[in-house]
Amino acid sequence: MDISVSEMKRVTLVEVNGRIDSTNAGKLGEALNEQIDAGRHQIVADLGRVDYMSSAGLRELVSAVKKLRKLNGDLRVASPSPRVREVLDLAGLDAIFQVFPTQVEAVGSF
After folding, report:
1. By three-state DSSP, how is residue 19 classified?
2. What does CATH list as the number for 2-108?
3. What digits encode the pLDDT tens for the residues 43-74?
4. What is the pTM of this model?
5. In the chain, where are the structural domains located?
6. DSSP 30-93
Protein backbone atom coordinates (compact mmCIF):
# COMPACT_ATOMS: atom_id res chain seq x y z
CA MET A 1 0.00 0.00 0.00
CA ASP A 2 1.23 3.47 -0.90
CA ILE A 3 -0.11 6.69 0.60
CA SER A 4 0.48 10.16 -0.77
CA VAL A 5 -0.65 13.33 0.96
CA SER A 6 -1.09 16.66 -0.77
CA GLU A 7 -2.34 20.02 0.40
CA MET A 8 -4.97 21.86 -1.52
CA LYS A 9 -6.35 25.28 -0.61
CA ARG A 10 -8.36 24.22 2.41
CA VAL A 11 -8.42 20.45 2.08
CA THR A 12 -5.87 17.69 2.60
CA LEU A 13 -5.99 14.97 -0.04
CA VAL A 14 -4.88 11.49 1.03
CA GLU A 15 -4.51 9.16 -1.96
CA VAL A 16 -4.21 5.46 -1.22
CA ASN A 17 -3.01 2.85 -3.69
CA GLY A 18 -3.04 -0.94 -3.20
CA ARG A 19 -4.49 -3.27 -0.60
CA ILE A 20 -5.52 -2.17 2.89
CA ASP A 21 -5.52 -5.11 5.26
CA SER A 22 -4.64 -5.98 8.85
CA THR A 23 -0.91 -5.91 8.09
CA ASN A 24 -0.84 -2.29 6.93
CA ALA A 25 -4.06 -0.58 8.07
CA GLY A 26 -2.12 1.01 10.93
CA LYS A 27 -0.03 2.86 8.35
CA LEU A 28 -3.23 4.44 6.97
CA GLY A 29 -4.31 5.37 10.49
CA GLU A 30 -0.93 6.96 11.19
CA ALA A 31 -1.08 9.00 7.98
CA LEU A 32 -4.56 10.27 8.82
CA ASN A 33 -3.67 11.00 12.45
CA GLU A 34 -0.57 12.96 11.38
CA GLN A 35 -2.79 15.25 9.33
CA ILE A 36 -5.34 15.63 12.14
CA ASP A 37 -2.61 16.35 14.70
CA ALA A 38 -1.15 18.97 12.34
CA GLY A 39 -4.46 20.84 12.41
CA ARG A 40 -5.76 19.69 9.04
CA HIS A 41 -9.37 18.86 9.72
CA GLN A 42 -10.84 18.69 6.21
CA ILE A 43 -9.59 15.49 4.63
CA VAL A 44 -10.52 13.68 1.43
CA ALA A 45 -9.48 10.03 1.15
CA ASP A 46 -9.20 9.02 -2.50
CA LEU A 47 -9.74 5.26 -2.58
CA GLY A 48 -9.96 4.87 -6.36
CA ARG A 49 -6.84 2.71 -6.55
CA VAL A 50 -7.59 0.52 -3.53
CA ASP A 51 -8.38 -2.98 -4.73
CA TYR A 52 -9.09 -4.49 -1.30
CA MET A 53 -10.03 -3.11 2.11
CA SER A 54 -10.44 -5.24 5.22
CA SER A 55 -12.32 -4.38 8.38
CA ALA A 56 -9.03 -3.12 9.83
CA GLY A 57 -8.91 -0.45 7.12
CA LEU A 58 -12.53 0.47 7.76
CA ARG A 59 -11.76 0.86 11.48
CA GLU A 60 -8.99 3.34 10.70
CA LEU A 61 -11.31 5.43 8.53
CA VAL A 62 -14.06 5.39 11.17
CA SER A 63 -11.60 6.32 13.90
CA ALA A 64 -10.34 9.28 11.85
CA VAL A 65 -13.82 10.55 11.01
CA LYS A 66 -14.83 10.42 14.68
CA LYS A 67 -11.78 12.48 15.69
CA LEU A 68 -12.36 14.97 12.90
CA ARG A 69 -16.02 15.51 13.72
CA LYS A 70 -15.14 16.24 17.35
CA LEU A 71 -12.90 18.98 15.94
CA ASN A 72 -15.64 20.29 13.59
CA GLY A 73 -13.91 18.66 10.62
CA ASP A 74 -14.75 15.74 8.37
CA LEU A 75 -13.30 12.96 6.25
CA ARG A 76 -14.90 12.41 2.86
CA VAL A 77 -14.33 9.52 0.49
CA ALA A 78 -13.59 10.12 -3.18
CA SER A 79 -13.94 7.73 -6.12
CA PRO A 80 -13.95 4.44 -4.19
CA SER A 81 -13.17 1.45 -6.37
CA PRO A 82 -16.16 -0.86 -6.95
CA ARG A 83 -14.75 -3.32 -4.41
CA VAL A 84 -14.30 -0.66 -1.71
CA ARG A 85 -17.75 0.81 -2.46
CA GLU A 86 -19.26 -2.63 -1.92
CA VAL A 87 -17.45 -3.03 1.42
CA LEU A 88 -18.62 0.42 2.58
CA ASP A 89 -22.21 -0.39 1.61
CA LEU A 90 -22.20 -3.86 3.20
CA ALA A 91 -20.75 -2.48 6.44
CA GLY A 92 -23.38 0.27 6.49
CA LEU A 93 -20.65 2.92 6.43
CA ASP A 94 -22.11 4.68 3.43
CA ALA A 95 -24.39 6.31 6.03
CA ILE A 96 -21.37 7.61 7.98
CA PHE A 97 -19.14 8.80 5.16
CA GLN A 98 -20.01 11.23 2.45
CA VAL A 99 -18.91 9.43 -0.71
CA PHE A 100 -18.25 11.30 -3.95
CA PRO A 101 -17.67 9.89 -7.43
CA THR A 102 -14.66 12.15 -8.10
CA GLN A 103 -11.83 13.80 -6.22
CA VAL A 104 -12.92 17.23 -7.50
CA GLU A 105 -16.45 16.81 -6.14
CA ALA A 106 -15.18 15.58 -2.76
CA VAL A 107 -12.74 18.47 -2.39
CA GLY A 108 -15.36 20.96 -3.55
CA SER A 109 -17.86 19.71 -0.98
CA PHE A 110 -15.98 21.44 1.86
Report:
1. strand
2. 3.30.750.24
3. 999 999 999 999 999 999 999 999 999 999 99
4. 0.94
5. 2-108
6. HHHHHHHHTT--EEEEEEEEEEEE-HHHHHHHHHHHHHHHHTT-EEEEES--HHHHHHHHHTTG
